[in-house]
Amino acid sequence: MTLYGIGLGPGAADLLTVRGKRVLEDVPVVYTPGRLSRRVAREYVAESKLGDLDFPMTRDPEELRRAWREAADAVAPTALDADAAFVTLGDPCIYSTFGHLRRTLEREHSDVDVEVVPGVSSVTAFASVFGVDIEAGEELCLREAADGAAPTGPERMILFKVTDTSTIHEKLTAAGYDVTFGRRLFMDDEDPLITDDPDELGERDYYTLAYATRST
Predict the structure, then answer these.
(1) Which of 29, 32, 131, 167 could bridge to 38 as Cys pair (CB 3.0-4.6 Å)?
(2) Is 77 helix (H, G, I), strand (E, B) or coil?
(3) At 103, is the secondary structure helix, strand, or coil?
């Protein structure tokens, strides 16, 4: 039997891939790591098929490892008995909780077969909204920017996990970048926002990214 890691896309239910939809409808159990992924999954499977897993929003390594082990221990017996799925927003291999679950299963439940079903990532969703072309010969780097981290160097960057927008804007503009923020893009029932003014973003939000380019 197989555990499928399914990318749901950036949040709009109709951006799920055809393969992802088919697998979701076929498996008897679908595990979700949070409210938003559960909402998308409910568009395709009955509530009775859904199971929640707890992944705390923390940087404490011990607490995270405990959560991954508990999730793996919960999923493994199911996936050994029948096919199952774990869903995640975006793509399972890009800044996803699924990667931690997969590595824990490989280490502690190596008899569980795992298969990834790719999803539309925030990278491609971002590019379509911002009108950014990613062409051959051009550099575009992906960076994490949690808690005010503002990496510099590349000519163009996509920054993920932008929780402290004011600090990042201040640091990057001082380093010679133009910065545009996008929040909750392609999320059904949410209010997406695109702005170059960090004050418009207000509260911290994990689902915020930024596009930074060197000023010309």
Answers:
(1) 32
(2) helix
(3) helix
